[in-house]
Amino acid sequence: MTKIAIPLLAIFALTACETVKGAGRDMQAAGSAVTSEAAEAQSEM
Asked: Record's InterPro entries (predicted)?
């Protein structure tokens, strides 16, 4: 049972890391979009 559980836990941990990394990339892209829109709005004032 332990021989099956340990590899499954490792797979879940790696999947979670990739999910968090992807979420971080999405948040960074959203932040960049907000920053560029704010800069554009300020330049129009």
From this structure: Entericidin (IPR012556)
Average pLDDT rounded to a whole number, residues 19-45: 88
d(CA 34, CA 11): 35
H/E run at residue 15:
helix 2-44
Is the torsion defined by CA of 29, 30, 31, 35 positive or negative?
Answer: positive
pTM check: above 0.85: no
